[in-house]
């Protein structure tokens, strides 16, 4: 593993001893990720498009959404007391007293079994015998099978048949570790404080690599970059451009004016004032702090070819600050007399890194606060594609140029450009068009993302973080922490973010568009 | 040596997740926080807006509104 230095442009797949050598590959990781992502998205969309139909009942035509893949794609859910509830939740009727709830009145159990965490599950334990729902296990095994087959075919195409068996065997092991990480992340207290699966996936891999070392069986499947890039291409389908204008000008101003200013200023501060050695670490921290936490860190790290330790560090810092901010910010806002809660919500939406934490913090200010905060964060989420593209262009045209000390030709820029970013942007454009222009496209795209591609994307990111943990040694992290510059960068950048976002939120959500925002809520659901 | 460290580390994780965190979740303020999030169907660990179930009705509302305005 490389020590931190100015060689920020080292592609980690080539530098990584665990990954197969890039020499002799028939196709690059980038294009392979685009192909895998496109295949999954196409299958997922065609399945829902072919299965959903218009049906007429009582003279009324209704569009019926169906997704046959739903039963075969799942991830572990949440749990309170028993980790087993995460993969095999108790059936609702068995948990409640049979006398109290007639079968016809019993709440419907979600096919994935998420209802195990619903309010009913907290009712006094009933003496009824328990039966467990195996639907989620089917879904987890289905996701493992679909991803395993697809990625094994991809690796065979890339490296030849000699590597496919090793990858397939290793993949099952890495997938098992990712499942453990998901179960850990599903504990309700852990979830409530925004400690995402990325952290636990890193921890599980990290413990193994720093005690017994990465087992030889797993090594062929330790391909964090490939998993991340494929996951990012799939994420493109969730970046729907029409949602940019969800809060009109106020939302755009907070999310798309302040955020790039903070990103660029923080990066500049890191380079010019703090003189950070690693530009890629500087960029990843600046992006995750200003855009939207872990997902932005993943996208920016892949776009600027950051090292795995840099991504781990940025994710760790982002989650730590998010936990603090999601508790402190709503408490401060709620206790300042006369503070407009809508302004406070927009302020939190623009500054707290993680989407889930924003919703949780916003809900403290009421339903309107939750919606405004989450909508501002959603608009920032959509900035991911643009920022990944911008960072990739900046890296190949400016950073690589500074290193080479000669102006690269267009062909060189093209060779160096991370092609998976194009797949990400293409997925975003295609699904934005389907969502906006195709009849019932919003239902098809929404349902496809919710029940299929979002789950695949989550598994791919989780697998990637397990792999990063498996490749990270304790000693490799220390040099990054020396002098505390990453921490200082985060604190200074976030301070600027807090000031600028508060100013813009007050201006847009109170002074200029206060009445318009009130009208949006006047007819809200 | 590494094998024992691995076993010890995973035993610690097992103890924290199977005993420590459930016990923490029974403490009144934490339980209230968790219950409030569950009542509103908020997944505080969501990485992207598409993971927030509670957000969907609001999203439908504002998208419907913007369609009306554009017509």
Note down, in words, how this protein is organized.
The complex is a heterodimer of chains A (525) and B (71). With 525 residues, chain A is mostly helical. Chain A has two domains: 12-49 and 144-522, no CATH class; 77-96 and 106-118 and 129-133, no CATH class. Chain A is 65% helix and 2% strand. Chain A is built from 21 helices and two strands. In chain A, β1 (53-57) and β2 (60-64) form a beta hairpin. In chain A, α5 (164-185) crosses α18 (441-471) and α15 (367-404) runs antiparallel to α17. The radius of gyration of chain A is 23 Å and the shape is globular. Chain A starts with 11 loop residues before the first helix and ends with a helix. Chain B has 71 residues and is mainly alpha-helical. Chain B has two domains: 1-39; 42-71, no CATH class. Chain B has three helices and no strands. Chain B has helices spanning 2-25, 28-39, 56-70. The relative contact order of chain B is 0.06. Classes of the chains: A mainly alpha (525), B mainly alpha (71). The interface between A and B is large, with 64 and 44 residues.
Mass-distribution shape of chain A? globular
Which chains make the largest contact? A-B, 64 and 44 residues
Number of helices of chain B: 3
Helical content of chain A stands at 55-70%
Stretches with pLDDT under 50, minimum 5 residues of chain B: none
Rounded radius of gyration of chain A (Å): 23 Å
H-E order of chain A: HHEEHHHHHHHHHHHHHHHHHHH
In round numbers, the mean pLDDT of chain B is 87
Q: What would you call the structural class of chain A?
A: mainly alpha
Compressed to H and E, one letter per element, the order of chain B equals HHH
Helix content of chain B: over 70%
Task: For the record, give the distance between the C-alpha atoms at the N and C termini of chain A, rounded to a whole number.
Answer: 53 Å
Low-confidence stretches of chain A: 1-21, 96-123
Strands ordered across the widest β-sheet of chain A: 1-2
Which sheet architecture does the biggest sheet of chain B show? Answer: none
Distance between the termini of chain B: 70 Å
Total strands of chain A: the figure is: 2
Number of strands of chain B: 0
Domain unit count of chain B: 2
Estimated share of beta-strand residues of chain B: under 5%
